[in-house]
Task: structure prediction
Amino acid sequence: MWHGVWLLRAVNEDGVEKELVTARARPDGDFIQLRVFKTVTGLTSFLIDLGFSVVAFPVYEGQRWTYTLADTPDDDSDG
Result:
């Protein structure tokens, strides 16, 4: 099984990056935790849940991958 650490960032048109934080909060306070994916399965499931129909990701440390959001949804590849 592939494992590692993947972080997701949102980048606006000006190139400003913000790290993705989801609704996971620490049980001991109000601090919001950065979402870290440690398995390919977890990362893939998350991206599919967001509506991505094609999933790709870097496999070597230090690599980056960029997704661009379209104004319209992808065509359904299932039929």
Residues 3-49 form one domain.
